[in-house]
Specification:
The chain is of the alpha+beta class. It has 12 helices and 15 strands. The strands form 5 sheets. Strands 5, 6, 7, 12, 13, 14 and 15 form a 7-stranded antiparallel sheet that branches. Strand 3 and strand 4 form a beta hairpin.
């Protein structure tokens, strides 16, 4: 082979090595043709890998919530939408919870029929055993079920006996309301109760002010979620009104509600079918206005309000927005066993209401043998929290060269590339010099 041909071949090989070494690694079992990736706690995982698929194919909501149908998540000009949360790998709560299809044990019998929820979960409230689920880590909008997280933070930080004066901003909040009126004086107990019983957005606004302000409250809510191992959850509004970046999952809602039920005050509040809520004084901006008396608020949880024959409803939290659709998390007791259910991204149907679907889920959970277990809600937070998302890490190298969990003695892609290119460049230089010497010798002859 001519030396010039060798040089060209070596340079082409060097370029090829650079491209190949810089390309992201493909996990075993992944589709080599897929170039789409998702970050999982600092590790780049191709979306075609086993952690992101089931036998039914790719999980559509593993990373992002379903597409919005309105403009509630449009960000303000000059701002960008929050990046998706990292996807934990392996799945929190057990390997079987990593898919998006139905996961169940045949020993429990057929799963409940005609469930309209895209994501749902049934678990034992006491033990944390997951009995059955569908898309348990799928990311969906929580709607007002996120108020559970706000309640947990408020119960941690505020004194239930402290009194708060409501403002016009509280009174003006969009959506469901407790009935706060400007100038009215309410205890923190009143407001957390109203938050859980009638899903009051006005109470959420007032509690956020008491917790230090809107953004500070969101920071505290998200820190609490992370502490509890609810890593699919990001609160973007304290009330659950849709906003860019908001997400949770059936698994996370189960974890949050179960944590709440371990608090005596939360358990008391969420189990109330009615509550006497205080009134407020005449409004100064309304001529001739008179005092507004208190009223008896009634729960938005129809299971608790109407009861279910054969079981005791312990409490729950409802939610609905156009983008989130219907959401619910709640618990019931029968014969000493307590069962928790979660419903997300579902709808009422004619002769198949969300209430009726919830009852079938509870019945399935109570009938399941105690030995049935497809996962657990008991994953420890310290075991599930790993590296920060790639965009938050201090990395000087190409982020595509992130640790993939391989042997720590293996060379990273970028160092290997530099070695290969340097070696080939040296070889090319040597051959070029040899060729010049040959030409000089021929000229001398």
């Amino acid at each position: 082979m001519r030396s010039s041909t060798v040089v060209r071949s070596l340079l082409v090989a060097a370029s090829t090595a650079l491209v190949v070494a810089a390309a992201p690694p493909v996990s075993a079992g992944a589709d080599p043709s897929s170039t789409s990736t998702s970050t999982t706690h600092g590790t780049v995982v191709p979306t075609g890998s086993p952690t992101a698929t089931t036998v039914d194919g790719p999980c559509p909501h593993r990373v992002n919530t379903p597409p919005a149908i309105d403009d509630s998540e449009v960000v303000a000009p000059g701002k960008t939408a929050p990046a998706p949360l990292p996807v934990p790998s392996p799945a929190i709560g057990g390997e079987r919870l990593g898919g998006c299809g139905v996961v169940a044990d045949p020993a429990a019998g057929p799963v409940p029929r005609k469930l309209t929820s895209k994501g749902w979960l049934i678990a034992d409230l006491d033990t944390g055993t997951v009995i059955a689920a569908q898309d348990p880590h799928g990311r969906y909008r929580p709607a007002s079920t996120i108020k559970i997280l706000l309640a947990l933070v408020a119960l941690d930080e505020l004194d239930l006996k402290d009194r708060v004066v409501a403002t016009v901003d509280d009174w003006s909040m969009e959506g469901d309301a407790c009935g706060l009126g400007p100038g009215g004086r309410y205890t923190v107990d009143d407001m957390i109760t109203g938050l859980l019983v009638v899903s009051g957005n006005d109470c959420a606004n007032a509690l956020s002010r008491e917790l230090g302000g809107y953004q500070q409250t969101l920071d505290k809510m998200n820190a609490k979620a992370k502490e509890l191992g609810a890593l699919d959850t990001r609160a973007a509004t304290p009330s659950g009104l849709d906003s860019a970046g908001m997400s949770t999952s059936p698994y996370d809602l189960a974890v949050l509600f179960r944590a709440g039920m371990q608090n005596d005050d939360f358990r008391r509040m969420t189990g109330l079918a009615t509550y006497k809520f205080p009134g407020y004084p005449p409004r100064k901006d309304v001529p001739g206005d008179t005092a507004h008396p208190g009223y008896m608020m009634a729960t938005s949880n129809t299971l608790l309000r109407d009861g279910v024959p054969g079981m005791t409803i312990l409490g729950g939290k409802t939610g609905f927005t156009d983008d989130a659709k219907k959401t619910f998390v709640g618990a019931a007791e029968k014969d000493g066993r307590q069962v928790l259910i979660v419903q997300m991204f579902g709808l009422n149907e004619q002769d198949n209401s969300y209430h009726q679907q919830a009852v079938r889920m509870f019945k399935y959970g109570f009938a399941a043998p105690a030995s049935v277990e497809v996962g657990t809600l008991n994953a420890e937070a310290e075991e599930t929290t790993t590296a920060a998302p790639a965009e938050e890490e201090d990395r000087s190298a190409d982020p595509r060269a992130a640790d993939t969990g391989s042997d720590s003695l293996a060379l990273g892609a970028l160092p290997l590339t530099l070695i290969v290119v340097a070696a080939l460049a040296v070889a090319a230089t040597v051959l070029f010099r040899v060729r010049r010497r040959r030409r000089s010798a021929e000229d001398d002859e």
